[in-house]
DUF1648 domain-containing protein
Amino acid sequence: MPKSIDQDALTDRNIRTLWILRIIMWSISIFVIAVAAIIVPMMPETIPIHFDIHGRADRWGSGFSVFLIPLITNIALAGIWFLMELFVRRFHGIGNDSDMSLYTSLKILLIGGIWVQFILALITADLLYGGFKQISSFSDDDIIIRLSGVDIGVCSCIAGMAMPLVKGMHISGLPKDSKFWKVLQYEGSAVLLLTGVLMLLLSVLLHGIWIIWAFIVAALMEAAVLTLLSFKARRDSNNPNASGPWNFNMSRIGHRPMP
């Protein structure tokens, strides 16, 4: 992709802010899809999808649409927003009819994406409400456990996406400006992301007490892997013969000037 004329105007702070906005936008998307995936199996085959001013259902549809609508829409939005960002980067600064900076243009685009995701979440909530009005019996405890798992999974994904963008805490003897510290941040980010995705899948696939045990095992595995990575990074940093992590260059994706 050709570099934009104002690409160099993006500071590290600008890049970090744009990444945070993107994380917020897709976190809403992940949460909506995960909740819909949990609720859909309990829905009747036909549910009300629209209510009149008096609260009576006037339109009906398939219960599976509660999952398909956010899924298909989010896939479409992912492609649209990606192409829009490419368009803004490619053509920003061409002509003399706009004084808006590249950072401002991209920020407005991402804020618009957050607003669209929020509207989609409200539409999905309305569909879920229509389905719940027809469910005569379901396990409140199971619903609470599953939704709690979704919350934990989404928070873990957010932490994983945000980890390379923040300084965070560092282990003793490992300077923050060292390459080992930077690689450790990206490795920890990958672990948090994978754990979050795993918890989202477990919330959908498992039931009852098995979800809780699965969360405990996943959390212990996450803590163990992060601890081992920390010890490895410190050991390598104290080894004068260590040439550095083999995947360091591949791990510096987040340091490229790309919001």
